[in-house]
Amino acid sequence: MQINPQARVNILIVEDHALLIEGIKNLLGNFPQYHVVGEVEDGLDVYRACQTHHPDLVLLDLGLPGMDGIDIIRQLRKRWPDLLIVVITANAAEHKASDALQAGAQGYVLKKSSQQILLAALQTVLLGKEFIDPALNESQVRKQTDHGENTVLTSRERQVLKLIAEGCRNRDVAEHLSISLKTVETHRLNLMRKLDAHNSTELVGWAQRIGLIE
């Protein structure tokens, strides 16, 4: 999707660090065409926020509590195919940028980069083009990568695994995802079977290995 870069652009910021949120808002406040319509700190709240605020563009951190950033991108793109998504993250791994772009993001910016890089990313995606932070090796990002560990799990199983790795008990997971305790227990058993994990510590290790937590 291409948006006239001179037109008003409604932006939703998805980030769990208050200082970074304020920094982005202060930066965008210098440009009349950018209008921040909302802020979200938990991955599980992003979908609802998009329903409420109807953003044109989402600035998305990948390392959110509650739900993995790549899964959020897939969920949003499935519901709103024309929504623009720019990832802003500390993760400088080329394969993570590749995963984000393949999931449907149009831009990938590192938090350590300058404000000018972020502004360039916004302008680029508004013109309908992809933007990859120049600090990354673009040829590596463009390579199609196949991470078998990511494809073995369903989206719901990845959500459950992420919450378990964040220290949530089964009852907490059920509450976060609005599902029954029995369903959580079933997902947990399936995760242990699929990943050949025998306890919570090994599940946490898998969550780290496939990038659900840092």
TrEMBL record:
User: Phosphoprotein: present as a keyword of the record?
Assistant: yes
Q: Name one GO biological process term.
A: phosphorelay signal transduction system
Q: Which residues form the Response regulatory domain?
A: 10-126
Residues annotated as transmembrane: none
Keywords, alphabetical: DNA-binding, Phosphoprotein, Transcription, Transcription regulation, Two-component regulatory system
| Sequence ranges assigned to domain HTH luxR-type in this UniProt record | 146-211
User: What is the annotated signal peptide range for this record?
Assistant: none
The family database entries (PANTHER family) matched by this protein are listed as: RESPONSE REGULATOR UVRY (PTHR43214:SF3), TWO-COMPONENT RESPONSE REGULATOR (PTHR43214)
Name this protein carries in UniProt: Two component system response regulator
Q: Which organism is it from?
A: Chitinimonas arctica
Its taxonomic path starts at:
Bacteria, Pseudomonadati, Pseudomonadota, Betaproteobacteria, Neisseriales
